[in-house]
Amino acid sequence: MTRRILIMLGCVLVLVAALAFGFFLHIKALIASAPKPGAQTVSTVKAQVLEWQPQITSVGTLVAVRGVDVTTEIAGLVRTVNFKSGQDVKAGDLLVQLNADSDVAQLNSLQAAAELSAVTLARDQTQLAGRAISQAQVDNDQADLKSKRALVAQQQALVAKKTIRAPFSGRLGITTVNPGQYLNPGDAIVTLQTIDPIYANFSAPQKQIAGLSVGQVVNVGTDAFANEMFAGKITAISPKVDPTTRNVLLQATIANPQRRLLPGMFARASVDTGEKKRYLTLPQTAITYNPYGATVFILKPAEAAPAAGAKEDKAAKPATPATPAAPAGTLVAQQVFVTTGETRGDQVAILKGVDEGQEVVTSGQLKLKNGTPVVVDNTVQPANSPNPTPQER
Question: How many CA atoms lie within 13 Å of 274's alpha carbon, on the beta-carbon side?
């Protein structure tokens, strides 16, 4: 009986072993037939040293050299409007004439009274020479004439206020004033702006004041003319630093003969400072920023790649599957840490981590890890301009 049980157990063990061996061969065949990870397509660029011109960049606002809303000092009824919206005018050009009929009539009356006082004074001076009247009478005549002439001057000033003229040369805005309209003191008639040249007001941090001076060239760009830069010069630096922002206000003057730049436009200003420097430069798309540091992928031949399955600190983290070794001569990716510096447009300066001439991946990094074989396709390259412009307008 015992012998029979042992034989049955032996048969069961042989059957289990046969099934396990068959399953092992099946799994091995599946692994052998599984598709191998192929090479990943990336774009690359060679790290190169370029000259950088140190710049101070800032944002600001365009401001008219002279700008004012033309108003009336006294109330009155509009008789004529002598301009068109958007017209260029010169200083002293007539803009609006208010009704001044009653004021002119009053002026004529005062002038007549002043003329009579002048005649009276002349007659009394003649009589004074013949000792017919006293000196006191002549003195009263002179005081009366001065008073009458003062009233005439006052009335003339009142009449002049009814004639509204351009205070300086410039371009008029859009008006809503019409003949027959009644204006109160302070009512806006039209805006007048002198825009050639035009000011660009912007600010810079106090730590950069040492590199700024009156006369430095400023390049200004606006969203309205995305592909153009307008050159000007710093003409004023505020003697006061804003205690809230610790910035200093600067003003640049820009020639605007075509009057395309308008007051109120947003402006981007850049000022060249100091001597040119040389930096190892990469496109910003090549940099991957992580909480633990910035990294890039460089390309090396397979034999120079880290050995697959290198030892890791198992106490720190669980082991990860090793990347299969690529054939000799194949380019593989290697991730390295870099120290970045200043940025300029689409470019970033690399202070440490990459050597000149090394081939660096600029797109496709998400598909890579250490030892991944790659195929380089530089048909399409990411932007790499020191002075980029919007691609969509």
Answer: 13
